[in-house]
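Entry 0007
Protein: LysE family transporter
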Amino acid sequence: MPISLWLSLAAICAAGAMSPGPSLALVLRHTLGGGRSPGVVAGVFHALGVGFYALLTVLGLGALMARFPLVFETITVVGAGYLAWLGIKALRAGRAAALDPDTAATTRRQAAREGVLVALANPKLILFFIALLSQFVHPEMSATARAIIVATAMVIDGAWYVLVAVALSQSRVLEWLRLRSHWINRATGVILIGLALRVVWGLWA
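Output (structure tokens):
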């Protein structure tokens, strides 16, 4: 793969990773609830979910979705439901998390599970890969070039969210965030539920 083409790919992946949304809210929530370690784990496992979609893309995800639209609709509805459920959980944490830090506690196992599931359940990721990443794939592409695409998407996503978790876990920043945890939980809940509703509305509008 020419370096100029790879740089374009890296820029698109970086823009996708850095855009605010449920993934950022997830890493923030786990960093807030458990410190650096759960936040980093959430970021790494989110990257694994991104890598999975990148792999499907280089194997022909776009053609599959065009041929079997019901598959895409099913994934979209299930994903929207999961995001809404996470949003409700965050809203219910609300004030309780501010009064009792233990109610917001999280573990690395929970962070890993939610990290990968939020990536897989986010319909925006599917659309992102079909619309943008698939532009870098062609039938004659070598296995090495396909592997580079998958690795680039996964590494950039993981590096960004690990960096976010490390930055947020600094003692002063983390303490400031914890004092405002109820507002962060509410904002996270609204973001997740809003995305879920937007996805369902776009599907059936």
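Curator remark: The radius of gyration is 18 Å. Confidence is low (pLDDT under 50) at residues 95-103.
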